[in-house]
Amino acid sequence: MTNSQLELNQLRQEIAQLQQEKSDLECLLETVITHSDTIEGQLYQLNLHLESAIIDRQKAESALQELLQLLLQEKSDLEILLETSNIHGDTIEDILYEKLTTATQQATTDALTGLANRRCFDEYLDQEWQALARTKKPLSLLLCDIDYFKNYNDTYGHQVGDHCLQEVARAIRRTVHRPRDLVSRYGGEEFALILPETKLEGALHVGQAMLLAVRQLKIVHTASQIGDYVTLSIGVTCQIPVAGANPDSITLMADRALYQAKREGRDRVISHL
After folding, report:
1. Cβ distance 240 to 137 under 8 Å?
2. Which of 93, 189, 201, 264 is catalytic?
3. Considering only 29-33, 96-100, 177-181, 216-220, which range has the smallest mean pLDDT?
4. Cβ–Cβ under 8 Å, residues 194 and 144
5. CB 180 within 8 A of CB 135
6. Does residue 189 carry a catalytic annotation?
7. What is the C-alpha separation between 168 and 235, in angstroms, rounded?
8. I want to staple 207 with a disulfide (CB 3.0 to 4.6 A). Which of 4, 12, 234, 240 is the partner?
9. pLDDT, tens digit, 9 for 90 and up, residues 34-65
10. Is pLDDT at 158 greater than 70 in this prediction?
C-alpha cells in the first residue's frame, strides 16, 4: 500500500471519529435542551439548601458566641466571689451562722410571747421523755390556762388580750430558773412547763409560785367570775418515763388535772397521777 493510500485511510478514520463526536455532541445538546428545566430546578433547590445551611450555621455560631460570653462572665463572677470569700470568709460564715440561728429560733419560738412554741414543746417533751426513760428519773409537766380569757378578750379587745398574754408569759417564765426547764405557749391562752428530773412536790411548788406571780400582776379582769384580776388554773402531773411508751400519756394526765382545777373553782393548782 502506497503512502497516499495510507494517508487517505487515516483521513477517513479521522473524519469518521469527528462525525461520531459530532453525533455525541448533538445528542448531549439535545439532552441538555430536553432536561434544562429539570436541571435548573435542581440547581435552584441546591442553592436554596445551601443558603439555608449558611443561615443555620451563622445562627449556631452566634448562639455559641453568646454562650461563650455568658460562661466568661460567670467565670469572672465566680472568681470575684472566690476572692471575696477568701478575704471575708470569717465574716460571711458568721453572717450565715447568725441567719441560721435566727431562723431556728423563729421556727421554735412563739412570736407573741417569746416563749417556746407548740412545736418546740412537742419535740422537747419527746427528747426529755427518752432521756429520762434511760436514767429512770421523774418528769413533771404543768399545763395552765388563763381563767375566763375569752371573756377578757370580749371585754377589752384582742389587742389588750395580747398584752395580757405577754405579761402572764413573763410572770410564768420568772418562776423557773434551771436551764433545762422549758416554758412554752401551748396554744391560745394555755401555757405548759416541762420540768425534767423534778418530783411532784417540786412541780407543785412551781405551780404555786406561778399562781402568786400572776396574781401579783393585778391585771384587772372585770369579766372574771372568780375575782377582779386575771388568774390561772394549773394542772400538774409527774411520771417516770418508760422507754418505748408514748409521752402523750403525761400530757393527758396534766390535762385532766387542769380540767379538775377548773371544775373545782379555778385559780388553783391540782395534781393528777
Report:
1. yes
2. 189
3. 96-100
4. no
5. no
6. yes
7. 17
8. 234
9. 776 676 777 677 777 777 777 777 777 777 78
10. yes
**Which domains can be identified in the chain, with CATH numbers?**
1-108 (no CATH), 118-271 (3.30.70.270)
Q: How far apart are the C-alpha atoms of 41 and 33, rounded to whole Å? A: 14
Task: Give per-residue pLDDT as tens, 82-134.
Answer: 887 777 666 545 544 454 434 445 589 999 999 999 999 999 999 999 999 99
List the grid coordinates of 67.
454562650
Question: Could you tell me which of 250, 131, 136 has the C-alpha nearest to residue 193?
Answer: 250
